[in-house]
Structures are given as structure tokens and as C-alpha cells.
Amino acid sequence: MDNNSNKTKVIISDRQKVIKIPTGIRLLIRRCCNAVLQLEKIPGSCEVSVSFVDGDEIRRLNSKFRGKDYPTDVLSFPLGVDGNYDVNPATNAKQLGDIVLCVPIAVEQAKKYGHSLQREIGYLTVHSMLHLLGYDHEQGGIEAVRMREKEETVMVSLGLPRNGSYVPESDDEL
Prior knowledge:
Blueprint: H1 3-7, E1 8-14, H2 25-39, E2 46-53, H3 55-66, E3 74-78, E4 87-88, E5 93-102, H4 103-113, H5 117-132, H6 141-157
Parallel strand pairs: 1-2, 2-5
Antiparallel strand pairs: 3-5, 4-5
Helix pairs in contact: 2-5, 2-6, 4-5, 5-6
């Protein structure tokens, strides 16, 4: 096991009652977080918070923080700017931020794209970790392409590559 995995603390909380979180999902999330940190060569200890929520909660957060009054699959709340993070004085770990994942939407998307819930939650975690590290796809262009390439690199390294049915039908889905 690499040193980074021993130094990364992933705090996972289930704040929804809609869907039982399958066995192994928490370990998968930790593996995804560690794989992104390893790919990005982030030194030292890190802390990340991951929360499972329902559609109502993610809609409320999306409206409050992004001005978008609809549910979404995942939200990222980075605590750092340009690679500078607050440090937890008790652990000396960089506090990367919070990931809020909507489990019912992840279930819907897994069905829509024809892959497992594990792959969907893994992808959403990797996607959000990259946001916590400063990557952004909102403007499209080269930044979006770089982010997608990094996502796929991590997913393949974890044994969760895209299957044929996961190819977006239009650029709007990127």
C-alpha cells in the first residue's frame, strides 16, 4: 500500500434514508480519493468529507450555493485556492473540502448509462476530488478535456473503465 493512503482521512456520512448504501461503497470512495491524490502527486496528509444525501437536500444545497434550483448528482465544496489549503492543527492534514453525493440520482444515472452503482459513485467521487483540487469543466474547452482525461485515468487504474454505453450522446452531456 502506498504512503498516501495511510495519510488521507476520508470522513463519510450517510445523511439520507432513501437508499441503503451497498457494502464496499465506503472503501471504494476512499480508494477513489487516494487514487486522485496519487495521480496529482499531492504531498502530505489530506482530509476530505463525503456525505450521502437525498434529492431534496442536494436541491437545497444547489440552490443555496450555485443559484440552481434543481437536484444534481454531486456537489464539491473546495476549501483551498490555487493549491493552498487550511491545515487541521490536530493532524497537520490539508483540508481539501466536502463532497456531497446524491444517492438516488447516482442510482438513476447508473441505470441510464448501463453500468454499476459502484462505477457511478466512483466516477462522481473522482470527478469531485478533481474539483476540490482546482479543476473545472464548466467553461468547456481544454480544461474540460483535461479533467475528463484525468477522470478516466483514475477510473481505469481502479478497474472501473467506461463501457461502450457510457459515451455521451452529445457535447451537452460533457
